[in-house]
Amino acid sequence: MEIRDLLKPELMIFDLKANDKKSAIEEIASKFFEKGYVKDKEDFKNGLIAREEEGSTALGESVAIPHTKNETVKEPAVLFARKVGGLDYEALDGEVTEIFFAIGAPAGENNLHVETLAELSKMIMKEGFIDDLKKCSSVEEVYGVIDKYSEKKKAPVVEKTTNDDIKLLAVTACPNGIAHTYMAQEALEKAAKKAGVSIKVETNGSDGIKNRLTAKEIEEADAIIITADKKVETNRFDGKRLIQRPVSDGIRKSDELIEKAIKGEGRIFTAEEGASKGSDDDSEGQSFWQKIYGDLMNGISHMLPFVIGGGILMAISFLVERFAGDESLAFTFLNGLGGDAFSFLIPILAGFIAMSIGDRPALMPGMVAGLMASRGAGFIGGLIGGFLAGYVVNLLKKAFRNLPKSVEGLKPMLIYPVFGLLIVGALMYFIIDPIFTGINTFINNWLMSLSGANMLMLGAILAGMMALDMGGPINKAAYAFAIGAFTDTGIGTFMAAVMVGGMVPPIAIAIAIATTFFKDKFTEDQKKTTITNYILGLSFITEGAIPFAAAEPGKVIPASVIGSSIAGAIVGGFNISAPAPHGGIFVLPAMSSLSQAGLFLGAVLVGSVVGGLIYGFMKKND
Question: What percent of the chain is modeled with pLDDT above 70?
């Protein structure tokens, strides 16, 4: 579907009355509601405001593209508005905004939303487009301008110009992967054409990588320009001249970047050392803490299969033990197999944290650091060992970067493994292990001493954290804490708390949908998710709640956190212990007693009912 099809004549305002950003959003939301494109004006308005809080949609050049993907939108539509003289919409260039394209998309229309923004963003970069729109005073004139500047969809091609001697490549990406990504693409292509060079631009948008650069194109390129505010894959550019800038420079300084690339400016990129930070003020768009979080998540994501597979097999073995005894072949096999998988937990965590930092050479010393930590320093020692190994290997890369080419092959085969292991091992043996073994022992003793109100409170906090961002940093921090306690002490109460915390949100939503009092507040499509949410929640898979949380965070998240916290408090108060770090209701048969299993299930039920009722009462009628 093209912009012309989405641009509705009844949604055109040629004399916007608003004089500031707040009133402009109000007027736009009112028009969508009056013409029947949204069910709830306030929900739609709040969606537009929430998007503005992430960053202004006023892209400069007198244009803004306010947009929201919202459950209250009945069908996708684009509103055109013109403010004579303009108003302050917090534009990137500080200038007033005169032209508005407001996009309303239903919650499930991901690709349509992105494609519309991408096409509009490209039109904005075309000379004359904005000026022509400012002159429009009728629906027909607006459609005429859109037709004049629109492009029919076609397969991505390299822009061929009069000068084929210089070949450039580019990658564009912004955090949201929507407007700025495609504006930078359009600006770079336009600047390259003007300079008489060929360029191919890869976009890393929210709908995935488009126009992907091939190995042959990279090999033949004279230079690569990266304009990105998030990390993109750069190792493929090893040995190529690279210019890295923020995505805003791709839009505003495209001519300058093309000129630099033509002149051979920028530095030679080496995958081993990472992107240079020289005269071009290179930036990968990640803060220090974002990088730390990404490295940690790399370790945890690789660790989880060992946690889940090994932990659940061990839980099943306890169930077998109850009926067949601890000398049975089935118990010995299952318990041993699960235990073997579980023994890899800290080494895998540390190894892949290290690999995220220092690439493949850091994997081995990281895993050894994790193994050493598993003997005393525990989960925390493993985390530290992983980061330590990654940074040690990076230091070794810098120390040996000037070796002669003839001995270059010694680095990955001899220097990094030997020196990396020696240095990391020494630091772990003489410093990290002695310090953190004592700290780990203190923490474990403290955890084991918790009871009563303290355990109740900690259970409530951990479960609430699981529901707060549903898979984000806070959720992962709670889960990592519970895994660490489970690994180091064998205490399953914290594991049970985070498990109920992750189970409650989707079940609470299913209960709200299924409750007679709230049925009219949900669409038919939402009602179809009831059974799915029950199944996901009971299996300790929180994903079923995420679409609802994304659409109505102000309602779903508080309801989920309250429900999960209540469930976690019950778990902590009754000292309920989970025999495995995953599985939901499937670990109930392996629990130590029938009363423990009943209390666990009761905690989930109480938390889910409370969360479901809160969400149901807060939700407005659709």
Answer: 89
In DSSP notation, 566-585 reads HHHHHHHHTT---SSSS-GG
Q: 3-state DSSP call for residue 346?
A: helix
526 CB contacts (<8 Å, ≥6 apart)? 71, 513, 548
Token pair listed for 271: 């995958």
- How far apart are the C-alpha atoms of 176 and 170, rounded to whole Å? 18
Is-contact 394 423, C-beta < 8 A?
Answer: no
Report the length, in residues, of the chain: 622
Strands (DSSP E) found in 208-286 = 208-210, 223-228, 241-245, 267-268
CA 581 – CA 486 distance, rounded (Å): 8
| Nearest CA among 223, 218, 249 for reference residue 236 | 218
Confidence grade of residue 281 (pLDDT, cut at 50, 70, 90):
very low
Instruction: Name the residue type at position 29.
Output: A
Q: Which residues are catalytic?
A: 67, 174
Give residue 28's pLDDT band: very low, low, confident or very high (50, 70, 90): very high
**597 token code pair:** 């299993």
Query: What is the mean pLDDT of the segment spanning 72-90?
Result: 90
Longest alpha-carbon distance in the chain: 87
What are the start-end ranges of the H helices in 169-324?
179-195, 215-220, 247-252, 254-263, 288-324
DSSP β-bridge partners for residue 168: 199, 223
